């Protein structure tokens, strides 16, 4: 039996300093391992325990670990996970499928064809974002892999009604809006992590899929997996979202990441893959 583990990264498996949520007394805080450096500065962390568990999990040849993220390929490749390197990675919310670090051109062509058929063009959505965003709270506007757009904002200053209006406008054009930390994403609805996960499962012959994620953009991935988890923080937790095959964990912050890796390992062991 081959088990595929597709895990979201930011605020699910890895955490920035602002997202660690270390609410315990300092002497009781977990030891952390830096897994990402950006511009010569540490950026993202796991607990040392989570890192050790992940290394043990990915050492098993019957486990296919697939990092699954909305990050661009360049942003993803800054991360250095412990253990065996992942052969497959899903970037750009499913728009890029990396095989040994190289984008799969056939997959990208399939994605481009579907988006052209089902969604308003990226240029229209990007122009609308720039025209309606207020410079008082907009810090940056970016395009990702020529697939979707996002804004970096001062979150506390963004009017709730603006987000609601943007969401309604986007839905009529086949796009989805997601607020994650200081970023507002506008993503084509057919651009999904689940579609890319199914493709990796097909290529690897995986018979069981496990997944984890914290945001609205992860919901399709969690629903597509046989068994899934979400942490006690993020868009899905704030909405109280769950499903029959999804476990809503109470833990928040970097310790939730550790609990998720434990859950992956426990389920893989229950299925009889680890140590087989």
**Overall strand count:** 15
Which class do the helix and strand fractions yield? alpha/beta
Overall geometry comes to globular
**What distance lies between the first and last C-alpha atoms, to the nearest angstrom?**
10 Å
Share of helix among residues?
25-40%
Strand content: 25-35%
Spans with pLDDT under 50 lasting ≥5 residues? Answer: none
Mean pLDDT reading: 96
Strands of the widest sheet, in order across it, are 5-1-13-14-15
Overview of the structural elements:
This protein is α/β, with parallel strands linked by helices. Helix content is 33%, strand content 26%. It contains 9 helices and 15 strands. The protein has helices at 48-58, 73-76, 105-118, 122-132, 160-171, 193-204, 219-224, 235-238, 254-270, and strands spanning 3-7, 15-16, 32-38, 41-47, 63-67, 88-91, 96-99, 102-103, 138-144, 148-153, 175-180, 183-188, 208-212, 227-230, 246-248. The strands form 4 sheets. It has a 5-stranded parallel beta sheet, with helices on both faces. Strands 9-10-12-11 form a 4-stranded antiparallel beta sheet. A hairpin with a 3-residue loop joins strand 9 and strand 10. Helix 1 (48-58) packs parallel to helix 9.
